[in-house]
Amino acid sequence: MSALGLQRLAADGPLLSPVAAGVWRLDEWGFDDAALAAWVEHAISLGITTFDHADLYGGFRCEALFGRWLKANPSRRDAIQLVSKCGIKPPDAARGWRLKHYDCSAEHITASVHASLQKLGSDHLDLLLIHRPDPLLAPDEVAETFERLRAAGKVRHFGVSNFSPSQYALLAARTPLVTNQIEASLLHTAPLFDGSFDQCLQLGVRPMLWSPLAGGRLFDAAAKPALAAALNLQAAELGVSTAAVALAWLMRHPCRPLPIVGSRKLAALDDAAAACRLQLDRQQWFALLQAAQGHEVA
Length: 298
Prior knowledge:
alpha/beta; two-stranded antiparallel ribbon; 8-stranded parallel β-barrel; oxidoreductase; single chain
């Protein structure tokens, strides 16, 4: 089976793999250097070459853990794409952060990028996202910061995460954005109806999707029997896993979402690659929507 190819995230956006590998819980996986290398190289062998980070993942440890592999294998930098996020400050007495808050100031964005690059062992990020919409975000300041980071070669492209359509439009009016990373799954279908996917189609940008398998909850036959049954039926008919069907359901949308799969299991990467080769027909797609919502479409 051939590896997946790279795809453009937006007209002027980066080339990323059609699904990304997420490392939110890397610090919990218990990988030694050999296990981490095996996981990363397996993903790359499938064509899953985009790795999704955030500065605060794992208590600000996950980027450095991943960086152990990249620093030991610097020649592999050109084989992968690095995405990171910034802007969330959790409570941290050592850093002087008394409560969780957001910070999209020029000072914080710049410091976060420099720290991420040092931890990852890279001279640039392919994509930087503002992690959460900050009520105190000053769009002109963020735009100027992005431009300075781009001009310095530190970050090549920019986007946001968890922004509403109006919040996205505000910042996009000041600076080019190439994605909105949002939650979407068969258990969280809001982006289909709240304007998020519509905006992506209108602007020609592809959303990145976190928690596309709802943390595994959509396979819980006790909690969601109709959905689990529908997924099992289609998986059997198509000869793939239920996870592959659930991911293919998301990817079927015309805005061409890019799901992020975060699991230590190599099989989860295999499922994600298999999903990229599935094309659900309309009735299969609506059967899963009906099962997820518990009723026919109106």
